[in-house]
């Protein structure tokens, strides 16, 4: 299952509810170059990377996909 929507659309709420209802679901943690927000923790919501580290991930084909969003 892939859940995709714009920022602030409620993805986290839907993910939490789906995972509470289905023990066979796991959360795939994405990488980002943006800084953490609020209570976000490294490795829980995102892997927070420097732009240099992210570019190294791109160059080594470590990412399934990537996109620049809001300058990050």
End-to-end C-alpha gap: 25 Å
Output the number of helix runs.
2
Uncertain segments of ≥5 residues (pLDDT<50)?
A: none
* Helix percentage: 25-40%
**Main beta sheet strand tally, sense and closure:** 2 strands, parallel
What is the gyration radius calculated from CA atoms? 13 Å
Strand content: 5-15%
User: What spatial order of strands do you see in the largest sheet?
Assistant: 1-2
Mean of all residue-level pLDDT scores:
93
The ordered string of helix (H) and strand (E) elements is HEEH
General shape:
globular
What is the number of E strands? 2
Structural class category? alpha+beta
Characteristic terms for this protein:
72 residues, alpha+beta, two-stranded parallel sheet, 2 strands
Give an account of the 3D structure.
This protein has 72 residues and is an alpha+beta fold. The protein contains two helices and two strands, in the order αββα. It has helices at 11-21, 51-59; strands spanning 30-32, 46-48. It has a two-stranded parallel sheet. The longest helix has 11 residues, at 11-21. The model has no long low-confidence stretch (mean pLDDT 93).
Strand and helix layout:
Layout: H1 11-21, E1 30-32, E2 46-48, H2 51-59
Parallel strand pairs: 1-2
Please give a quick description of this structure.
With 72 residues, the chain is of the alpha+beta class. It has 2 helices and 2 strands.
């Amino acid at each position: 299952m892939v859940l995709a929507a714009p920022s602030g659309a409620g993805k986290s709420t839907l993910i939490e509810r789906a995972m509470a209802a289905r023990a066979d679901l796991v959360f795939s943690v994405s990488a980002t170059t943006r800084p953490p927000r609020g209570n976000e923790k490294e490795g829980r919501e995102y892997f927070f990377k420097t732009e240099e580290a992210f570019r190294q991930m791109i160059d080594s084909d470590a990412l399934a996909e990537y996109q620049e969003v809001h300058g990050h």
